[in-house]
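Severity: low
Component: inverse-folding endpoint
Summary: output formatting inconsistent between runs
Steps to reproduce: submit the following C-alpha cells with default settings.
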C-alpha cells in the first residue's frame, strides 16, 4: 500500500506541474476578453482531462469496486455513516478562490454549496478540488470512505446448552458464555456487557456468572463507523445447589448386635429432590455393580452382607452426594429341637379348700 501511495503522489505532482506551466505561460496575443475566456475554458478542459487521468490512475491502483470489488484496504479508509457530513474550504493568496467542486466516485463534478453527505453504503471515494478566479485548477484530491449504516449483530452463546424450564434458562455455575459479534461493512470495534447492576465493560474473555440464582446479562456491539446494536439482555438462572437423595426401605431394618438385617420381602425405594432445575437422572448400584439408572424398587434376595448406593444428577449437571445403606440378608430359617426329660416332673398337691363352720 505504501508503494501505491508513493506512485499516486508522483503522478499527481507531475500532472499539477503541467497545469501550472500551462496557466503560468500564456501567449502574448491573449490580451482580449474573448481570448482570455477561451484560455480559461481551455485550461478547465485540460484540468478535467487531467482529473480523468488521475482517476484512471487511482482506479488502476485501488481497483474499481463496481467491476472487481473494493480493493482499497480498510486501514486506509475513513469509517463513517450517512449521518456524517464534510465541509470543504480552500484558500488562494493571489487571485483568490472562485469555487470549490467535488464528485462521488462514479458521479459528475458539482460546485460545493453545502456540507457533503454520502448515503450509499460501502467503500467509495470523494474527489474534490478548488479553482481560483483566473482559472487555476487544483490537482484533485481523493478521500477514501467506507460508509456503514448497519449496526453489528451480537449474540450470547453458552458453552453448555441451557436447560429451559417454564421458559427460564438454567445453567450450572461452571458454564461460560461467549459474545459473538459480526459486522458486514466496517467490522466490529468493540463489544460491551454488564452483569446485574454492574457498569458496562469491554468484552475480552468468556463470561462466567459467579452468583447463584437469577442473573441479568446485558450486551451490545459497536462497529468502526460508530453504529451500535440495540442492547440485548437475558436472565440466566444459575443452579449451584446439588440435589438431595435418600434410600428408604419398605420395612425398617432390624438392628441385631450392630448389624442391620432386612425383613423378608423388604424392598428399597430411592427418592431424589431438586428445587432448582429439577432431577435429570437417578443412579443406583448394588455391591460391586456399576451405577445404572434407577427404574424400580430394589429387592435383594441373596444371602449375606450387601451395600446399596445411590446418587442423583440435576438438569444442569450438579451431582448429589452418594448415599448408601448397608444391610444383611438372612435366608437361613432357624432350627428348633425337643428333648424328653430324664425324670418325671414333680407335681404339687393342691391344698384343701377352707371350710366355713356351721352356725
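Observed output (run 2 of 3):
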Amino acid at each position: 500500500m505504501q508503494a501505491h501511495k508513493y506512485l499516486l503522489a508522483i503522478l499527481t505532482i507531475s500532472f499539477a506541474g503541467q497545469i501550472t506551466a500551462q496557466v503560468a505561460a500564456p501567449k502574448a496575443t491573449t490580451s482580449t476578453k474573448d481570448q482570455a475566456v477561451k484560455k480559461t475554458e481551455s485550461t478547465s478542459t485540460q484540468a478535467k482531462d487531467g482529473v480523468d487521468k488521475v482517476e484512471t490512475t487511482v482506479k488502476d491502483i485501488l481497483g474499481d469496486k463496481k467491476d472487481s470489488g473494493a480493493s482499497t484496504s480498510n486501514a486506509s479508509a475513513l469509517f463513517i455513516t450517512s449521518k456524517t457530513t464534510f465541509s470543504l474550504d480552500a484558500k488562494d493568496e493571489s487571485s483568490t478562490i472562485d469555487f470549490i467542486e467535488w464528485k462521488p466516485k462514479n458521479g459528475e463534478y458539482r460546485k460545493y454549496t453545502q456540507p457533503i453527505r454520502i448515503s450509499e453504503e460501502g467503500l467509495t471515494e470523494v474527489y474534490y478540488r478548488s479553482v481560483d478566479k483566473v482559472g487555476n485548477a487544483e490537482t484533485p484530491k481523493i478521500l477514501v470512505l467506507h460508509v456503514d449504516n448497519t449496526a453489528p449483530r451480537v449474540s450470547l452463546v453458552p458453552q453448555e446448552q441451557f436447560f429451559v424450564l417454564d421458559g427460564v434458562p438454567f445453567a450450572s455455575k461452571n458454564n461460560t458464555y461467549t459474545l459473538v459479534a459480526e459486522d458486514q461493512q466496517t467490522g466490529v470495534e468493540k463489544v460491551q456487557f454488564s452483569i446485574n447492576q454492574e457498569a458496562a465493560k469491554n468484552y475480552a474473555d468468556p463470561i462466567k456468572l459467579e452468583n447463584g440464582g437469577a442473573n441479568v446479562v446485558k450486551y451490545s456491539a459497536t462497529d468502526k463507523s460508530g453504529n451500535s446494536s440495540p442492547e440485548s439482555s437475558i436472565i440466566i438462572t444459575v443452579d449451584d445447589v446439588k440435589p438431595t437423595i435418600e434410600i428408604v426401605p419398605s420395612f425398617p431394618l432390624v438392628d441385631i448386635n450392630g448389624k442391620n438385617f432386612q425383613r423378608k420381602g423388604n424392598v428399597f425405594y430411592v427418592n431424589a429432590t431438586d428445587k432448582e432445575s429439577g432431577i435429570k437422572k437417578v443412579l443406583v448400584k448394588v455391591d460391586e455393580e456399576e451405577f445404572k439408572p434407577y427404574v424400580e424398587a430394589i429387592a435383594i434376595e441373596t444371602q449375606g452382607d450387601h451395600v446399596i448406593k445411590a446418587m442423583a444428577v440435576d438438569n444442569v449437571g450438579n451431582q448429589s452426594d452418594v448415599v448408601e445403606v448397608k444391610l444383611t440378608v438372612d435366608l437361613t430359617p432357624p432350627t428348633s429341637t425337643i428333648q424328653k426329660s430324664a425324670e418325671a416332673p414333680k407335681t404339687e398337691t393342691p391344698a384343701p379348700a377352707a371350710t366355713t363352720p356351721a352356725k
